[in-house]
Each structure stands twice: as C-alpha cells, then as structure tokens.
Amino acid sequence: MIHQTPSRKSFSAAILDWYGSHARRLPWRSLPGEQPDPYHVWLSEIMLQQTTVATVGPYFRKFLESWPSITDMAEAPLDDILTAWAGLGYYARARNLHKCAIAVAREHNGVFPDNMAGLRALPGIGPYTAAAISAIAFGKAETVVDGNIERIISRLYRIRTSLPAAKKEITEFAAKLTPIEQPGDYAQALMDIGAGICLPRNPNCSVCPVSFYCAAFAAGDMENYPVKAPKKIKPTRRAVIFWLQRPDGHVLMRRRAEKGMLGGMMEFPSTDWADEALETKAAVEHLLQGQPSNLLNDISVRKQVRHTFTHFHLELQPVAAQLTSPEKLELDGAVWIDPDEFGSYALPTLMTKVVKAVLESR
User: Fold this and answer.
1) Cα gap 314→111, rounded to integer Å
2) 350-360, pLDDT tens digit by residue?
3) Is the whole model's pTM more than 0.85, yes or no?
C-alpha cells in the first residue's frame, strides 16, 4: 500500500477536522476552540502522569472541590494534599504540586507564566508538561509528545530506533507537524487518537483520520512500533512490617521522610527494604533497638503483601503485636491512630494493602 508523506498543513488539518466532532469530553478539558483554564490544564497534566484518564477523573473533581484555585491550593497544608492524593501513586507529584502552587501564588500573583521558560522554572514541571500547558492553555505552538503521541509518530514514520533512545527523533518529527493555529486542540486530538484508535495492540486504522499518511499502516506492521528496548527484570525487595496495637485499638504509624519514595506519607514501621527479609525475632529486635522485648505481646505473622513499584517488586511480611505499655515504646515520629480514622491520613496504596492483609487474617 502506498502512503502519502504528511505535511504540516494537510496533516494538522485532518487531525483538527476529526477533533471537531470526536473530541473526548473530559472534566478538565474545554470544548474545541474554547479558552482553557491554565490551573485545570496543569492539575490534570500532573495527575495524568503514569495514571489513566479513568482513574484521574474523580481525583480531579475532588481537588477542584477542595481547592477551586491555585491560591487555595497554595494555602492548604501539605498533609491535606497528600491525603487527597492517596491512591494515585507517585507521591512526589503531590509534593511538587503543592510546591508549584505556592510558587505560582507567591512569585506570579496566582497566574501561571505563559511561556516555556517560566513554566520550566516551576517545581515539578518538565519539558513535556511545560509544552502541554503552553500549547493547551496559552495557544503556543509547542510540540507536545506523550506516550500516545509517541506511538502515532513512530508509526507514521516507521521509526526503527528503540525507545527511549528514539524520543529525540520522535520529537523532531512531531515538531515538523505541529501547527501554528490551534496547537492545543491539535495536541489533545492526537492524545485522543492514541487513546482510542492508534492503540498499542489491534489499532483501529480503518477509522483513523490520518491512516493514509502512515508508513506502518501501509506496511501492515503497526504493532511493531514504537520499537522498545527489552524490559529489564525487576528485582524483588523484602521487609517485615509491624502492626502494633495498644489496648484501646489504636495502631502505631509514622510519617516517612519528605524526600524519597512515598515521601511525606504515613506508614507502619518496618525493617529496611532489602534483598532478604529478617526473621520475625530479628525484625522485632531491629524494631525495639535494645528496648525490652516484653513490650510486645501476642506476636503473630499475617498474610504477606506484594506490591509493585516502577523499578522493583516489594514483599512485606506483616507482623502484628499487642502493646500493654505503649507509653514505654520509644520510636521516632510515632503516632497512634484509630483504624476507623485511616481515611483522614495520607495513606498510600501499599499501606492500605497492609491494613487489608492484617484485618483479613486475624
């Protein structure tokens, strides 16, 4: 099959024409041709990183109800942001969200910069997010390339370089097609085509508005693109995690350090995440750090918890114990929480799994 070489004018015209009647209705998105709210664009783009549209929808609405403006968010305590974010994962995004809100409120009078340099200077905003905000919110002809658009461009030109090395080449090709007019609608149209038509598997090329430009469609090998480097095997880390309960039913938790994985979130105390977990007795000794072992009573092992992060798997062995004299336990940052109030705290998905495993295996 012969395909046509796309030009900026013809390609973008076909994309925008399709978008006019097929645009997805999303809670953060303005209708084609309408002026978007930069705050909504920014919030949605941060939430959508590594997260699906279906998952983000309810969170986006909840955040806007709690903090209708960037100034409202800047004035909120970080813990409120983290608590509302719980379950979305990649919690550094929530911390940077708060930092960015403060920066916009204090340094820009609550108004987002309308240029790439100003946007890139804000916490948590990298090249992609800056380009997306600039194009969608401010109508600047910036080249926006997310995972969906990477797939479209790599198939359009049958780019044989594997990801992630191909990112630069894909962006260069994408830039040649980005229109001066309606760059925001154009970028969102490509996102929609990637999400609903140019799928990783079984792409629906028969309804694609630009299939006649696609080299991979002409060759019949669409699913070979984008080319991906072989996946690395994820290592598995292990630890013992403690459910320490005092006589009134309250459970001990602590807040993780602000920096690093799950930064600022609440957790149950655990041993270090290592290649091998300690035996229960050794783990208890590690927890108590020389304090009397009789502080813990009724020690029992509960159902194992498994969780997968981006770069490794984690296996946690919950160990439950009763404390008859909780005031004698010395543990930095300890907070006693009624399990009925867990929903009021910034509890990551990993810790909700621990709660479920412990309660189900009593």
Assistant:
1) 41
2) 999 999 999 88
3) no
